[in-house]
Structures are given as C-alpha cells and as structure tokens.
TrEMBL record:
Highest taxon of the lineage: Bacteria
Binding site for substrate: E167
Pfam families attached to this UniProt entry: GCV_T
Domain named GCVT N-terminal: residues: 24-137
GO biological process assignments: iron-sulfur cluster assembly
Name by which UniProt lists this protein: Folate-binding protein
InterPro entries in alphabetical order: GcvT/YgfZ_C (IPR029043), GCVT_N (IPR006222), YgfZ/GCV_T_CS (IPR017703), YgfZ/GcvT (IPR045179)
Amino acid sequence: MITQWQDFLTTQAAPSSSDSAANRLFDLTHFGLLAVRGADAATFLQGQLTNDIRAVTATQSQLSGCCTQKGRLLARVRVLQISDTFYLQLPAERLLALCKHLKNYVLRSKVTLEDASAELLRIGLAGADTATLLADCGLQLPDAVNALTSNGEVHVIRLAGALPRVEILGDFPAISALWERLDAAQVRFVTADEWRLLDIQAGIPHIYDQTAEAFVPQMINLQLLDGISFRKGCYTGQEVVARMQHIGTLKRQMYRAEVVTDTPPQPADEVFCAASTSQQASGRVVDAAPIETGRYAVLAVVEISAVESGEPVRLGENGAVLTLEMTELNGA
C-alpha cells in the first residue's frame, strides 16, 4: 500500500512551504507503525511501556515510552487501539530496533509483533478550519488532545498545538479520497519539516537513532505529557524512572529554543554552557526544524543549573546561542 500511496502522491501538487496560519495537509508515512496482537498483548505492553495501557481505548490514544533496564529511552511512542490490535507509532527509523527489543521479552506470551506501516496510511491536517474541513468529509474533530474518533475505517486523533491539529489513519481508498477532497478545498500539501516544527512548538519530542538511550523519560518531559504512569506497577526500566520521580533530583530537562545558524541543528548535537558543573556537554538537541532560512526551532535537554545561571547556552562549544523559552512544556 505504501508504494501505491507514493505513486498517488506523485500525481498531486508537490509539497511546499506555506503560511503557518493556513490550513495544511501532511504525508506522515515517515512515521512507522508496530502492530502488537494476541491474547496477551495488553498485559505484555503493560510490562514494557511507561504509561498505563489500560487507558488506551477505541476513543483514546496515549503517549508512552519504551526503556532499557537502565531507564533509558529506546523510543517514545503513540499507542492506539483499533479493533484487537495495538499500534505503536514512532519515527520509522526506530521501528525495527524497537521490535527487536520487545521480542526479547515475549517469551511465552501470546503476542505477535510486526511492522504494520503498510496497513494504515497516515496523513496530518492542521489549521484553524480543521473541524469544518473534517465535518465536510464526514469526520469529527475529537474533543481533547490524544482523543480518537472513527468513521468506518478512518480514524482521527487530535494532537497538541496552538491550532487544531489531527492525524488521520486509514486504508488507501479512504485516505486517497479524503486527500483529494481536502486538496479541492484548497488545503495545501506541505513538507514533513513543517509537521516536525508543529511537534517542536507543541513540546512533543521524538527519539531518533542518534538519541536512542540518551535520555530518561523525565528529561524529555514525558511526565508532563501524560506519558508516564507512576501507579501502574512494574515495567522494564521502571525502578530507575520511579526513583528519579520520588527520590532523585532531575538535573536536566527539555526546553524549547530558537537558534540562528548557517548549520542546521541535528538530534544529539551537543550544547554547552560556561556555567555547567558537569565534565561533559551541558545537554543535547532532541529535535530541530527550520522556521525560515537560517533560523531553527529546537527542543533541547539542558542542565537545569546551567540554564538558571543566566549564562548563554550554545550549540556546540563556540557556536550560536540558543534562545531558551522558560515556559513549561506540557504538550498543550
């Protein structure tokens, strides 16, 4: 189905940049889907993810994390349930690594894990008219962030952001027909970088190959995004995550920032501050996306004491200064 979808997109107008206030349409196949099926699927995921899988229903998705035994994040996923299948969505580059990791814990559980990226196409819609555009197509904007509505084989998840924003999942006939209707309504097809920018502006982090095992969940504010349950019981890495929450002191956390530079920031790029008390970099870039030429929005995990010192935080030891936002990032 992915090849069929890519062939379809070649018949459409090429993606472009747009006015950030315009209604925009996105191809989201740069995300992958891992399907978890079987009689023990829910129990299995409850023992592997940071969030409480019991809260996932036909009308509610959730953010969650998958950790190593040392509490380091291998992936930050969105979990949704369609019929009897749980889907874990994450950047496609991390899907095989996550699948391999989880298979180590299946043992005798009645669970199957497989790449389901070709089962459901994913597109995004963002803009002030999102609710009206969905209604004109027979779809409903969910009432709350992470909530999910369905109409037949098409599923709509509301996402965080200043403007209404949704992800839509479905099979090729349904999604291609929906795409054509939205295109006819003058919704512009734009680049994946613009979706990445919307996630950054909403404080939604992703884990990439470069940043796998670089962070514990609280460093990327997963607890503020309702991505951790501290009451669910044991899961892989839980002891480290719980200790950080109840006993330890969080020394690094994620901030939103902007930077002006000729070199595009990349995930895992080091940041430095002269006030740092550590013997290593003061932090790392989580994600970055262009706002305009030479200007980038960034999510970065930075040493809290360094930020509070007021000293400049730089991209690289002698690089451009990051302008940090001090507002709490909670995915609102």
